[in-house]
Amino acid sequence: MNTLQAGAKAPNFSLQNQHDETITLSDFAGQQVLVYFYPKAMTPGCTVQAQQLRDAKAELDKHNVVVMGISPDAVKRLTKFAERDKLNFHLLSDEDHAVADAFGVWGLKKFMGKEYDGIHRLSFLIGADGTITHFINKFKTKDHHQVVLDLLD
Fold this sequence. Notes:
This protein has 153 residues and is of the alpha+beta class. The chain has helices spanning 44-55, 57-62, 75-85, 98-103, 144-152, and strands at 14-17, 22-24, 32-37, 65-71, 90-93, 106-111, 114-119, 123-126, 132-136. The model has no long low-confidence stretch (mean pLDDT 95). The protein contains five helices and nine strands; from the N terminus they run βββααβαβαββββα. Strand 1 and strand 2 (22-24) form a beta hairpin. The longest helix has 12 residues, at 44-55. The protein has one domain (14-146): 3-Layer(aba) Sandwich (Glutaredoxin).
């Protein structure tokens, strides 16, 4: 896994969101974008992380930050997740994990003695010029939003 770091240009991508609309990173040029990768919609940790970002939307808006959560889930599952938790940001489907590969967040994971490939829970704050300003890898799901807000202040 060769994860992108601060100072690198964020790879442009186009993915389907929970409304089955195509969302392209470059469409948000001039704004800051939080791209956060999470393993699976509607699981406990991913739910807490998403709910905290949902509840911090007004604060993130003050900093002109667009939030995009990316997982390997199908659009249909993302729709259920967004509706169930009233999520107010883009959830993007990366079923073939091409975007996760481009950011360097797809790789070997271990859980309960088993090894498998999957998305690592990592985030990137991308500046208005498309350059990664912060690589966020040290957080708990319940305080991820606060780590992001602290970086913005």
